[in-house]
Structure formats: C-alpha cells, structure tokens
Design a protein that fits this description.
- This protein has two domains: about 30 residues, no CATH class; about 70 residues, no CATH class.
- Helix content is about 40%, strand content about 5%.
- The chain is built from five helices and two strands.
- The chain is flat and about 50 Å long.
- It starts with a strand and ends in a 15-residue tail after the last helix.
- About 5% of the residues are buried.
- About 10% of the residues have low confidence.
C-alpha cells in the first residue's frame, strides 16, 4: 500500500512511501469511507426504496419478476438481487425491515466522522 506524504503533497513530484496498514488510519482520520461500503450502502438504500413502493409499481414488478427457464450450467453470474440478499445477511436485515424506513436507514455505515470532530 502506498500513501502520499502529506507534507510534500504540493510539490510537483509526490513522494510515495510504503506504510502498510495506514490506509485505514488515513480514512478514519480524514473521515472518508471505503468505496465498497459506499456502494453497499447505495445498493441497500435503492432496494429499500423500491420495496416501499406500491405493489403495482413497474420497478417493483420488474425487481420481483421471475424469468422462466433454466440457468446455464457451471458457475452462475452474480445477479444484482443475489448481492443485495448477501448484503442484507451481513447487515442482519430482512425484507420486512425495508418497510420500516427508520430501521432500514441504520444500514448507513459509510462516511464516518473525521477523528476529533463532533457532529
């Protein structure tokens, strides 16, 4: 892992140093979330939004639609809904939790406060 030496960040040539393990510390100090956490949060937020829509809404019908036929042999490609279900298991959420917006919003884990700041 490489990080930028912040003291020399304004110079034309930025000095890179290998400080294995400081990436997490820098994110915590600067209050920046990991991109995978941001993507997971957005995915779950969209899924909850769709689940709270009316039953006859076209987006909800498409999300809940089943395509007939068999899937091909071998390793299956990841589907969006499979990843959502995996994220829901990790966050200990159920489909019923999506109906309760306040409960669903507790999935927000990205964008921590910078170290030393108050909300």
């Amino acid at each position: 892992m490489y990080i930028i030496d912040l003291a020399d960040a304004t110079e034309k040539h930025v000095k890179l140093q290998n400080f294995g393990g400081l990436r997490y510390s820098l994110r915590r100090i600067l209050g920046v979330a990991c991109i995978t956490d941001k993507v997971r949060e957005a995915r779950l937020r969209w899924y909850g939004h769709v689940q709270r829509r009316e039953e006859d809404d076209c987006v909800k019908r498409i999300l809940e639609a089943n395509v007939g036929g068999q899937r091909s042999r071998g390793r299956q490609r990841k589907r969006w809904i499979d990843v959502v279900k995996y994220n829901m298991e990790d966050s200990q959420l159920s489909v019923e939790d999506a109906e309760h917006r306040a409960e669903w919003r507790r999935t927000r884990v990205a964008d921590p406060l910078p170290e030393g700041s108050t909300a």
